[in-house]
TrEMBL record:
Signal sequence, start to end: none
Domain named CP-type G: residues: 68-231
Top-level taxon in the UniProt lineage: Bacteria
Protein name: CP-type G domain-containing protein
Classification via InterPro entries: G_CP_dom, GTP-bd, GTP-bd_ribosome_bgen_YqeH, Mito_lipid_metab_GTPase, NOA1/YqeH-like_C, P-loop_NTPase
GO molecular-function terms, A-Z: GTP binding
Organism: Fontibacillus panacisegetis
Coiled-coil residue spans: none
């Protein structure tokens, strides 16, 4: 009888780190927890334990359909939605079609990781840029809050906005993987809740596996939802060790190159930029400081990659490059007067500084989102 009751209690429990229902039967499925771990407080699944204590990644994920099903529940609720996006990967982290899932519920757009932009950035221009890009993406937002969970910047303003717009609603926090959702909510838990728990935080995609409810003083909840996985982001494709390379952890230092037509810049072995045609002009690369840049002649670029990918053009290593899809070439004709960025989701962007016009190309693994956008800086 005691064994049956213990089993029923296990089935009803959820991981305090990622929100998944706990089970002790199958190590290959989400929520696996050794039976002895049920005696601990708070209880977390083995996956969260390994992430927190050993910084390990895990292949256990929730299917995309399940993510969308959970997100779709918001439309039938009275909710304030906080949509967190990553300023480093804005177009890659915006949830396309969000309004379709959440109905007429109000949205706050929290733009995280602003600490990664150069310190001399004009923040009013960034805010205006975000508002325009959000509108073009079909988002209707009540307010835009620029913030940094890492540096606790803008967090007070986000709380003020929540108080202003939520009324008697629950608060749902949504976002793509790895945009900082759990980090922001943990800061809220530490400052405004008596709960003795934190959400699992790591640099690995898909850390939160189910909705996690955090009670508020007025009986409402803040609900952390699973991150939406977009394969079009470089951060979803690379190995765990390479993820730490392409994701910057400090303000980016713009790298300016004066190029003649027929020159190429390699971003380690992650991708390349070709200046195919145009007058001599400057291009500014905004990528993680851990990604080495290598300039060469366009006519030698294919041969260089074929012979030195994973060696001179490293990272990724040869082993990890072999696991990525084949590269695809994207060509763009930049018209005169068009101040723009060539955006590579999850890797960064190249700002085209001059207004003379140019023909350029980007080579990255097949499926990675590459696009021309108005310059953010």
């Amino acid at each position: 009888m005691t064994e049956v009751r213990g089993q029923m209690e296990q089935e009803a429990l959820r991981c305090s780190g990622c929100g998944i229902s706990l089970q002790s039967e199958d190590q290959g499925k989400p929520g696996y927890t050794p039976k002895q771990a049920f005696e601990r407080e708070p209880i977390i699944c083995q996956r969260c334990f390994r992430i927190k204590n050993y910084n390990e990644s895990s292949s256990v994920t929730v299917e995309q359909d399940e993510f969308l099903r959970l997100l779709g529940q918001i439309g039938g609720k009275q909710a304030l939605v906080i949509h967190i996006v990553d300023i480093f990967d804005f177009q890659g982290s915006v949830i396309s079609g969000l309004q379709r899932f959440i109905g007429n519920n109000p949205v706050l757009l929290a733009v995280n990781k602003i600490d990664l932009l150069p310190k001399v950035t004009n923040w009013n221009k960034v805010r205006n840029w975000v508002q325009k890009e959000a509108k073009d993406a079909g988002l209707k937002v009540e307010d835009v809050v620029l913030c940094s969970a890492k540096q606790n910047s803008g967090f007070d303003r986000l709380l003020e906005a929540v108080d202003e717009y939520r009324g008697d609603r629950d608060v749902y926090v949504v976002g793509a993987t790895n945009v900082g959702k759990s980090t922001l909510i943990n800061r809220l838990i530490r400052d405004y809740s008596d709960l003795d728990q934190e959400l699992t935080v790591s640099r690995y995609p898909g850390t939160t596996l189910d909705m996690v409810h955090i009670p508020l003083d007025d009986g409402k909840y803040i609900i952390d939802t699973p991150g939406i996985v977009y394969p079009s982001r470089y951060s979803e494709l690379v190995s765990p060790q390479d993820l730490g390379v392409i994701l910057p952890d400090k303000p980016m230092k713009p790298a300016v190159y004066q190029l003649n037509e027929g020159q190429t810049i390699f971003f380690g072995g992650f991708g390349r930029f070709d200046f195919i045609q145009g007058n001599r002009q400057s291009f500014t690369c905004f990528v993680s400081g851990r990604v080495p840049l290598h300039r060469t002649k366009l006519e030698k670029a294919d041969e260089l990659f074929a012979n030195h990918a994973g060696e001179l053009l490293n990272p990724p290593s040869k082993e990890n490059i072999a696991k990525l899809p084949e590269w695809t070439r994207h060509e763009f004709r930049i018209t005169k007067g068009n101040k723009c960025d060539l955006f590579i989701s999850g890797l960064g962007w190249i700002k085209i500084n001059n207004d003379q016009g140019a023909i350029v190309a980007v080579h990255v693994p097949k499926g990675i989102k590459v696009m021309v956008r108005p310059s953010i800086i």
